[in-house]
């Protein structure tokens, strides 16, 4: 295959029910492109038949390349691995569950050809998702926009097109706790949105559980905002002001109303619980930041590879 113009990066984790349909729709899109394209599938330590199905696609179609991570490293790291190996001038990232419609890639490419270097898909609606999922997603993106030190567009996921220049900058970033959609906004350049309504999963179970979504949300806030640290300071100041007020009240009661029923065990207990909760919250916030510093300074590889297929420089592929 000649040097591709377009690279499609698809992280996969236990998606055996979706791979065949995903491939069919992606190939249909690739055949409408005005240049060569490669399809890079990243197996993120799947426990089902995903990897064997990916191997079969690679054997049938030389445009399909794949990476198999040595274990499950997580969605953001799988995307990072794919970005490390792309060859195209234009890179499209999307998930394998077909909630992000592959046909939208053609519109993204039109925007790229107009001169935009980042084109992200922005959701107008989420079909067949619970009200809790819709509400929490809506609230998170707006809280993140208020807290973050960069303008991260609301209601956007990892489904996007990035110019090669942007991808090279992302690949040069040494961060381990990666929030791709935030890093994508941080690099700058000309960016625009294309709008769509998000479909339900084509098949299979949701892979982003509440716990994983919560962890990703925390990563996004901690990676792009110092506000939680300031919050710890504000809570400390609030507790100090409350303590001063209580001292004045106790002195007043002792001097002017010594039989007040508010003096005694109840007041002391409430104060202890209040101060204890403030201290634990502040320690937890500090712990989140310190934990990320600890992960960064260890210097371990972001991921390890156990198998690759289709890459010309396969002998040079090693842990990143």
Characterization of this structure:
The protein has 320 residues and is α/β, with parallel strands linked by helices. The protein is built from ten helices and eight strands. Helix 9 runs antiparallel to helix 10 (265-298). The two termini are 25 Å apart.
Write the layout of secondary structure elements.
Elements: E1 6-12, H1 19-30, E2 37-43, H2 50-60, E3 64-69, H3 75-85, E4 90-93, H4 104-113, E5 118-126, H5 131-147, E6 156-163, H6 164-172, H7 180-186, E7 191-198, H8 210-224, H9 227-256, H10 265-298, E8 305-309
Q: Output the helix-strand order.
A: EHEHEHEHEHEHHEHHHE
Q: How many DSSP E strands?
A: 8
- Amount of helix: 40-55%
Q: What would you call the structural class?
A: alpha/beta
Approximate shape: elongated
Largest sheet: 8 strands, mixed
What keywords describe this structure?
about 15% strand; single chain; 8 strands; 10 helices
Q: In summary, what is this structure?
A:
By secondary structure, the protein is of the alpha/beta class. It has helices at residues 19-30, 50-60, 75-85, 104-113, 131-147, 164-172, 180-186, 210-224, 227-256, 265-298, and strands at residues 6-12, 37-43, 64-69, 90-93, 118-126, 156-163, 191-198, 305-309. The longest helix has 34 residues, at 265-298.
């Amino acid at each position: 295959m000649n040097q591709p113009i377009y690279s499609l990066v698809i992280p996969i984790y236990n998606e055996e029910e979706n791979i065949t349909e995903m491939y069919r729709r992606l190939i249909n899109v690739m055949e409408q492109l005005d240049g060569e394209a490669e399809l890079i599938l990243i197996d993120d330590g799947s426990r089902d038949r995903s990897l064997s199905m990916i191997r079969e696609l690679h054997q049938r179609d030389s445009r399909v390349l794949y990476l198999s991570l040595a274990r499950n490293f997580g969605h953001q790291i799988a995307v990072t691995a794919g970005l490390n190996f792309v060859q195209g001038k234009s890179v499209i990232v999307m998930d394998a569950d077909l909630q992000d419609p592959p046909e939208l890639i053609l519109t993204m490419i039109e925007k790229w050809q107009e001169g935009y270097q980042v084109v992200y898909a922005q959701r107008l609606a989420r079909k067949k998702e619970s009200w809790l999922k819709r509400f929490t997603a809506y609230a998170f993106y707006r809280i993140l926009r208020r807290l973050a030190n960069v303008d991260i567009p609301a209601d956007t996921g990892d489904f996007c097109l990035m110019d090669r220049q942007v991808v090279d900058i992302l690949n040069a970033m040494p961060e381990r706790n990666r929030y791709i959609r935030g890093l994508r906004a941080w690099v700058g350049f000309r960016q625009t949105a294309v709008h769509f309504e998000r479909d339900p999963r084509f098949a299979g179970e949701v892979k982003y559980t509440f716990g994983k979504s919560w962890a990703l949300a925390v990563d996004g806030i901690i990676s792009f905002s110092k506000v939680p640290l300031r919050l710890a300071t504000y809570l400390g100041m609030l507790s100090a002001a409350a303590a001063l007020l209580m001292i004045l009240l106790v002195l007043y009661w002792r001097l002017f109303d010594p039989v007040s029923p508010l003096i005694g065990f109840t007041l002391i207990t409430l104060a202890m619980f209040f101060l204890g909760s403030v201290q634990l919250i502040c320690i937890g916030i500090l712990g989140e930041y310190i934990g990320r510093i600890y992960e960064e300074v260890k210097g371990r590889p972001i991921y390890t590879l156990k198998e690759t297929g289709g890459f010309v420089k396969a002998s040079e592929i090693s842990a990143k």
